[in-house]
Amino acid sequence: MTTEQLQELAEHLDYVEIHVGMFRQYLETVEKYLGEARERLGDRCKKCVTK
Q1: What is the Cα gyration radius of the chain?
Q2: How do residues 27-36 score in pLDDT, each as one tens digit?
Q3: CB within 10 Å: which end of the chain, N or C, has fewer?
Q4: Three-state DSSP class for 3?
Q5: Distance between the two ends of the chain, CA-based, in angstroms?
Q6: Against a cut of 0.85, is the pTM above it?
Q7: What are the Cα distances from residue 29, in Å, to 15, 18, 33?
């Protein structure tokens, strides 16, 4: 590979890393939301069983 090709590849990898990081942040937010939803559903189910 030429130096120019390697530079283009490095820039592309930087771009990919940035987007992977953004996607990870999004997934962390989704996981947090789902965890909170599971907790609320679990609390509701416990209340239904104890009635």
Answers
A1: 22
A2: 999 999 999 9
A3: C
A4: helix
A5: 71
A6: no
A7: 22, 17, 6
Token pair of 40 as six digits: 């609320």
Distances from the Cα of 1 to the Cαs of 5, 14, 18, in angstroms?
6, 18, 24
Amino acid at 24: R
The first and second tokens of residue 48, run together, are: 């239904």
Distance CA 23, CA 48 (A): 37
The amino acid that residue 26 corresponds to is Y
